[in-house]
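Trying the structure run again after the queue cleared.
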Amino acid sequence: MSRFFIDAIARLGVICMAFGAASAEAEWHQANAAIMGTQIHVEVWHPDADTAGAGIALVLKEIGRIDGLMSPHKVDSEVSQINAAAGADWVGVSAELARLLRTAEQLSVLSGGAFDLSFASAGHLYGYRQGLLPSPEQLRAATELIDFRQIELDLARPAVRLARPGMRIDLGGIAKGHAVERAAQLLQAEGFAHALISAGGDTRLLGDRMGRPWIVGVRHPRSAHKLVTRIPLNNEAISTSGDYERFFEVDGLRHHHIINPSTGDSARAVTSVTVIGPDATWTDGLSTALFVAGPETGLQWINALAGYEALVVDGQGQLHQSDGLIPMEDAP
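Done. Tokens:
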């Protein structure tokens, strides 16, 4: 007897769906945890429950390690140390963080600054839980500090320096993608061939779902219970950035966490961007960059990147997609 199930986490941009045989489903093992300020979901296939449990524990431990390294909210993290020394000293960092900052730099150059870790210079002024906005004067001063070219990186040492006092960086647009990609690499090294690791809107799929594709439903940006479309995937990453993840409204205007580096204000050209590709670090960063740039410019980048596809929902609810994306039928 066939079986249909949905792993639905309400705030995710994608809902992972599958069609599979009941006997195969008996060997799937899963767990949830709250790490990196979001919901982590892990599924692995293995005939031995103890081995599966060890694999899941390995994933959660690794994501927790990366959170400790890169969270701007943990005072002892490397990112917090970099921010604390802005405009002054170089800060020695791990080779892992240095490599990720190099990838972020590449994304910034590719996107003409639409992706910029130093958005946090302004982004930290918003209180999304309290519904607080910075004053125009605060925002103007902070926006002048946003410039990825002022993030100095020495890969040989490795070390990092923010050139101007008051600058801040935040890896929220790339760290979760890195975490799920890294977790998938660890599972592969341990012999797991079929798995799903999800952190917020970033998901990494290993293999297929035992002979059938993973069916990924892209949620509607204005309804957690509706889908924009469904996409069959095997052994790929998928990331969604949406204006519904962290936001508040003032006088009908939505202020959300995806900041346009050129204004210090929320980017509003689109409401949702989904990027698919072989590497979750890149799909995470690209989804943020496309959200800021908008569909016309952003899809030009994607069409020029081998192996990557994108789906964009603009501010009017219209769908835009890259040349090679082949979704399933329109979803209800």
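The chain has nine helices and 17 strands. Worth checking whether this holds up in the mutant runs.
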